């Protein structure tokens, strides 16, 4: 089947995102995967691909049931995880990023959840759950991650890594970068002592302030 222009663009965008994440140290070698959805087409990195040098040819396009539509390489072994997230969040998830980022993975080897130490974590939904350990590429892992993602745009995978989703590919990438920063923050704070966790009241105050002030949204200067 010949590739459509839309599929070609989507494959290029996914390849660009994979290279960006690898340059930031979140994707190492062939470990991790990235996908993006446009309608009923999902572009996802192929299995065994060196993500730091990923090209559009290293990205495969599949249907929601996993049928290959474009590309010559088999999709990642975590295909079921990505497809499950899209099925659960049809109106919210346009991209999914799975990394083996060092600090996120370290936290996922120790904690049952990443508590809210910094208000920016609320952009991901609050406390980040750690999905129970399961062998990579299994239905058990995919199900655990989908549960951990309920009401969140990020989850940690016990002794494995992290997953983020977004309404755009850029948003999913930015969430992965933010999650890694938050995990690094927790690591550094824990080395100094017992971290102070923001209370539910403090978190609610942040949400109210963000709404009132349009936090994180560019706007023209007054005057």
From TrEMBL:
Highest rank taxon of the organism: Bacteria
Record bears the keyword Transmembrane helix: no
InterPro entries: Aldolase_class_II_sugar_metab, Aldolase_II/adducin_N, Aldolase_II/adducin_N_sf
Pfam families documented for this protein: Aldolase_II
Class II aldolase/adducin N-terminal domain span: 12-187
Coiled coil: none
PANTHER family named in the record: 3-OXO-TETRONATE 4-PHOSPHATE DECARBOXYLASE-RELATED, FUCULOSE PHOSPHATE ALDOLASE
Stated name of the protein: Class II aldolase/adducin family protein
Taxonomic source organism: Nocardioides humi
């Amino acid at each position: 089947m010949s590739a459509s222009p839309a599929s070609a663009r989507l494959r290029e965008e996914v390849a660009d995102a994979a290279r960006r994440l690898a340059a930031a140290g979140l994707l190492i070698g062939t470990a991790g995967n990235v996908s993006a959805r446009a309608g009923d087409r999902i572009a996802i990195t192929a299995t065994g691909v060196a993500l730091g040098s990923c090209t559009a040819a290293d990205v495969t396009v599949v249907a929601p049931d996993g049928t290959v539509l474009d590309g010559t390489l088999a999709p990642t072994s975590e295909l079921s995880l990505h497809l499950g997230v899209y099925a659960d969040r049809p109106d919210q998830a346009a991209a999914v990023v799975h990394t083996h980022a060092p600090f996120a993975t370290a936290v996922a080897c120790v904690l049952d959840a990443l508590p809210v130490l910094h208000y920016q974590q609320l952009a991901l939904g609050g406390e980040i759950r750690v999905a129970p350990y399961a062998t990579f590429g299994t239905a058990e892992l995919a199900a655990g991650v989908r549960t951990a993602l309920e009401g969140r745009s990020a989850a940690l995978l016990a002794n494995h890594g992290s997953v983020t989703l977004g309404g755009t590919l850029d948003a999913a990438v930015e969430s992965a970068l933010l999650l890694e920063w938050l995990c690094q923050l927790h690591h550094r704070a824990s080395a100094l002592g017992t971290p102070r966790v923001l209370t539910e009241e403090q978190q609610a105050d942040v949400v109210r302030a963000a709404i009132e002030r349009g936090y994180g949204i560019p706007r023209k200067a007054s005057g």
